[in-house]
């Protein structure tokens, strides 16, 4: 819809629509176009978000799997047990992530996709309105042409026919023009009302996921235990003192 439906107008002797009215409708169409682009980006970004969530969950799971299969874990039962607990936590977290992704799909991607499916029909209505305007302008010009001609019997008949055609063209254009003037602003306002509940649901799901993540990893931390900073530093010093680590 990123085009000016009035850019190709060739003005007749008498304007069939005011420039102010033209500018107002163009303004609404541009606003609609911007909203359409935003909706498309929202749908794409939500899909990327789901993919990113899956990638993060998959990456952490790969770390725990690699550790579980390494020789160090195999030879250290206590360490193996800790990594096993971590792996269980990762799998629980992955399940929560899948639930969040399902929420994103149902509350954002699918509704926005349906919304984006409406824009082509609006675009069609705008183009039909443009065609109707062109027909209205041609009918106006044709009437003016016969009004200037000599009033012969044949020209009078053509003049009357032109008047009827102009009335029909005007009625058709007025109907389509009024519909767009009323419906485009309404659609833009309703679009916000349509999307807002989806975003609220998504945010609540995010809160639930993060709360669950805190709970899971807090329990994991307590289960695994943690060394004091000085103990960790002492171990690091001992590692550096090994002959194979000396520069």
UniProtKB/TrEMBL annotation:
The keyword Cytoplasm applies. One of its GO terms (molecular function) is lipid binding. Residues 1-20 are annotated as: Disordered. GO terms for biological process: actin cortical patch localization; endocytosis; plasma membrane tubulation. It holds the Pfam family BAR. It is found in: Cytoplasm, Cytoskeleton. InterPro entries: AH/BAR_dom_sf, BAR_dom, BIN3/RVS161-like. One of its GO terms (cellular component) is actin cytoskeleton. Keywords: Cytoplasm, Cytoskeleton. Residues 10-233 form the BAR domain. This is BIN3.
């Amino acid at each position: 819809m990123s085009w000016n439906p009035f850019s190709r107008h060739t003005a007749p002797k008498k304007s069939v629509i005011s420039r102010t009215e033209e500018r107002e409708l163009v303004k609404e169409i541009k606003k609609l176009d911007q909203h359409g682009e935003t909706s498309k980006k929202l749908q794409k970004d939500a899909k990327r978000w789901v993919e990113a969530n899956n990638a993060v969950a998959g990456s952490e799971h790969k770390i725990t799997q690699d550790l579980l299969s390494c020789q160090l874990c195999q030879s250290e039962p206590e360490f193996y047990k800790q990594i096993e607990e971590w792996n269980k936590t990762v799998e629980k977290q992955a399940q929560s992530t899948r639930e969040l992704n399902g929420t994103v799909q149902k509350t954002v991607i699918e509704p926005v996709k349906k919304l984006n499916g409406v824009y082509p029909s609006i675009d069609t209505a705008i183009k039909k309105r443009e065609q109707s305007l062109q027909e209205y302008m041609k009918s106006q010009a044709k009437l003016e042409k016969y009004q200037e001609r000599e009033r012969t019997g044949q020209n009078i008949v053509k003049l009357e026919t032109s008047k009827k055609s102009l009335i029909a063209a005007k009625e058709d254009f007025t109907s389509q023009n009024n519909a767009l003037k009323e419906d485009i602003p309404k659609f833009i306002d309703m679009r916000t009302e349509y999307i807002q509940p989806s975003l609220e649901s998504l945010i609540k799901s995010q809160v639930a996921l993060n709360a669950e993540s805190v709970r899971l990893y807090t329990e994991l931390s307590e289960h695994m235990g943690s060394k004091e900073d000085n103990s960790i530093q002492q171990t690091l010093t001992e590692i550096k003192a090994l002959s194979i680590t000396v520069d």
